[in-house]
Amino acid sequence: MPRLTGRNRLLGGLxxxxxxxxxxxxxxxxxxxxxxxxxxxxxxxxxxxVRFGCDPGPTKPPPPPSPAPPRRPPREPVAAYLxxxxxxxxxxxxxxxxNLEPTLWTCPAARPVIETQILDAFQPDLVRVGLAQAxxxxxxxxxxxxxTWEAYQRVLDAPEFQPSWEFIAMLNRRGIAPLVAPWGxxxxxxxxxxxxxxxxxxYFERYAEYYAAAIDYLVNRRxxxxxxxxxxNEPDCGDGSRISAADFPTVARLVGQRLAAxxxxxxxxxxxxxxxxxxxxxxxxxxxxxxxxxxxxxxxxYTPGGEVAELLRVMREAGVDLPLYITEYTTxxxxxxxxxxxxxxEMAFLLEIATVLQSxxxxxxxxxxxxxxxxxxxxxxxxxxxxGLLQGPQAQPPFGPRKRYxxxxxxxPYAPAGARVLDTAYHGPPTLLPxxxxxxxxxxxxxxxxxxxxxxxxxxxxxxxxxxxxxFRLYRTSExxxxxxxxxxxxxxxxxxxxxxxxxxxxLAAPPAGS
Length: 515
Prior knowledge:
The protein is an alpha/beta fold. The chain has helices at 6-27, 29-35, 110-122, 149-156, 162-173, 204-221, 248-260, 274-287, 307-317, 346-363, 403-409, and strands at residues 78-89, 95-99, 126-130, 179-181, 229-230, 266-271, 294-300, 324-329, 367-370, 377-378, 383-384, 420-427, 432-438, 445-451, 456-463, 471-477, 484-490, 495-500, 504-509.
């Protein structure tokens, strides 16, 4: 054996130290990330990170409420005229519905409330759910090599997640195959290590596998029926991994190819607003191939205006005849309810979200889903969201209905799948907005009147209806009324007159079919 010199002993010692460092870097993930200057990933949806049950949080105090909007002094009533012409009906719509947080199903008290006060009361055709509160990646994953099909499915198969899948099963029993959406990719697949970071191009295929693992688990292992799947929730702006418009067709094609094996088609781009969706849709049109995996174009839109009509124009002029779904609508005019603020003026909030919905349907949207039905923890904000028609399980009393609940009961049940939105000719103050809807089957018309301004004395004339109206049932929500049933209003020779109080929502409901 050769004799070791001092130099050889030094080199040998350094080699041993180097080997030890390599072992530590490979096997000790936090040290490896520090040495490589990699961002620490956010926790995946382990039972430690995702919170369940009737008291899920938040861990931070709620922000102060927003100030109430100023009130204008009352003004004199004004007369107005409305013509409802049955010849001017749009195409059948796909319906309306809600976003619902599946994790609510881990709170036993929520289950009968959701079934009776949301699903039975509103009979929604469409429900959209998040697949999980956060990316379904194992929390101890140290590198992308740890993000495997089996690892994803182990997370989804954890006992704590089973009530969420039971929730989808309940929807299936009611004939609803929910739209699904992911709230971002695992942090290891993004540029900054966060689910809301930019999805790295070299990991586009890994993202498609991540998504397919969840769909495979739900469809093949749980036997669930799913509706359309979003390529990514809000790829342009917020609660989802960022994907540029230029890259979106590539990601959509990869995801579409993987999900097609399960009979699941896509919707998207699911951007924060319809104006941003134009860039993504134009990229899909230029690409050509990715669009074959889509069954609908979907976007969020939280304000009224011309953006939805413009997106539809771009689609139709390019020969894209897919339906347009507004997959989220609400209003941000009354605070950031994502962070737990309460709307300071419930009646004003109701009238605003009703205005947003009216704008979308009149513009030609095929479907619209309100964000969201019931308050619950919004993990990305560590807050109980306050968008719900019903308050959450921690409220006093639990699941109490807000003013907006009663008002939306005067709109949503009258816009089922197959209904048609009628054009109207209106002369009067612009603060009164009409929405005329002919129900499927007999074509009987219901009329919703959203009044954000002064009292209006309205004369309504009906022409060319499939089923000429002889009477309506009048419901009203106002500062002091919650869907008050005010009896029947007769129609005399195709005309009626009705008073619309200031700041109120009035529905003239068609009689039940066959009555």
